[in-house]
Amino acid sequence: MKLDHPELQSRLAAEYVLGTMHGGARRRFDEYLRHHRGLQAAVARWEAHLTPLAEQIAPINPPSRVWRRIEARINGKIPGNKSPLSTGNLGQNGARSPVLGGLFQSLFFWRGLGMGASTLAMGLLVSIFVGNVMPTHDPMMTAVLEDQGVARMVVEQPKSGMLMVKMVKPWKTAPSNSLQLWVMPKDGPPRSIGIINQDGSTKINMQDLDGMLNDGLAFALSKEPMGGSPTGLPTGMILCKGVIAKMPPKQAPKQQI
Amino acid sequence: MPDPTTNEYLISLLSRTSLGDRPAFNALYDAAKSKLFAVSLRIVRERHIAEEVLQDSFVKIWHHAADYAAAKSAPMTWMTAIVRNRSLDIVRRPQHEVADHDDFFALNMPDEGPTPPVQLASKRDQAQIVRCMKGLDDEQHKAIALAFFDGLSHSEVAIQLKRPLGTVKTHIRRGLLKLKDCLDGHVNEGAGA
pLDDT per residue over B47-102, tens digit each? Predict the structure, then answer.
């Protein structure tokens, strides 16, 4: 009997998920699992079947030190830290650039953007967009997306229903990948804005754009399979992100730059 | 205030976590911690080890939240599987057990198999497995429950039930087959509905 036999796969996967597989076998199974899609699917099916049994176990509160230790271990790190763009530059204590790490990880940021960040974002934006792709009138909102404190991309809404995205410099990704832009709302999962060009600017026209951005707090760019995330939610590493600075609606004097 | 028990809420927290949203991760931890701690404690039996399992699991969830979207399972199922796996890894360390390679006679060079779609819904899955467990013989039920909830190995189940090792292995193997038939049967019913 070979390992690609569905019945054997299912039997091994069942014992693996149930937990009766012994240490040596379990570790070898883990090795196979890494590369064998048939086994992965069999394990996923058994996990889906058996794991809901755990709902019958009465909850027990863990001590609060567990969360403190989790926080300490992830401190200063963001998901997708395998990215070559986000390796290095982490401080000794996990301290990151105050612009990216601080903003993205602080409660204040998620509850409402600090004015300092808005001002900084706008300042950066104005200097980058001067005489460039943007229309001359004031945008409705802007965001500078950063990685490790380095500005990588600027997103601006010049008018209702339109979004302009500009790379600070072309992004080097494998041609088989797409770059997908997301808006992070105040509540709920991220919403896809769309796929953007890797090497220049992208103009996005969307009828329901204003609604999507209405309660948006931040933009993030993720690396996805060609054509975009197959699930409707981010699946790849986060390449850069930045807070949204909204312009006051009636207070838009022409800026002299 | 969102209902912290709904799949939608947990999915939303996981997807925000994948974008580095620390408060969402904190909320995810708060929503799941007591369930997951209890799952681990049943298996590893020592509080300080269960605490470590919970830590390791949530560090993993933080770094791999983006993988959740591809898992296509209910969020609690996905997280519980991470916690159970970590707990089992610990109690299955070599110093904790005698060698037993029965299951591995067939592990040669693996070939790539197809990946059938897995589509899951937590509540329905729970009702199914509870119903199917009830359909097992008493001995099969006991053996599988001891293995699942308490993380016991074949030989530990045998000691607990005062049965020969071979008998316990047979009970578990046949019980799992019966569960599979029951669960697959139910899946087909569900798909036809």
Answer: 999 999 999 999 999 999 988 877 778 899 999 999 999 999 998 876 554 434 33
Measured distance CA(A166)–CA(A163) in Å, rounded: 10
Q: Which residues in chain A touch residue B115, judged by CB atoms under 8 angstroms apart?
A: 37-38, 40-41
Tokens of A103: 């903003």
Position B20: which residue type? G
Angle, alpha carbons B145-B146-B149 (nearest 5°): 70
pTM of the predicted model as reported, rounded to 2 decimal places: 0.62
| CA distance linking residue A219 with residue A234, whole number of Å | 12
- B47 vs B38: CA distance, rounded Å: 10
User: Residue A231: which of B17, B69, B152 has the nearest Cβ?
Assistant: B69
pLDDT digits (tens, 9 = 90+) for A184-210: 888 888 888 888 888 778 888 888 888
Global ipTM: 0.80
Helix (H) or strand (E) holding A146: strand A141-147
Judge contact between B22 and B16, C-beta under 8 A: no
C-alpha B160/C-alpha B175 separation (Å) is 17
Helix ranges, chain B (H): 7-18, 22-44, 47-71, 75-91, 122-134, 138-150, 154-161, 165-192
Interface test with B, best of A2, A9, A50, A111 (most B CBs within 10 A): A50
Most confident segment among A142-151, B76-85, B122-131: B76-85
Neighbours of A140 (CB within 10 A): 18
CA distance A174 to A39: 28
A213, A157 in Cβ contact below 8 A? yes
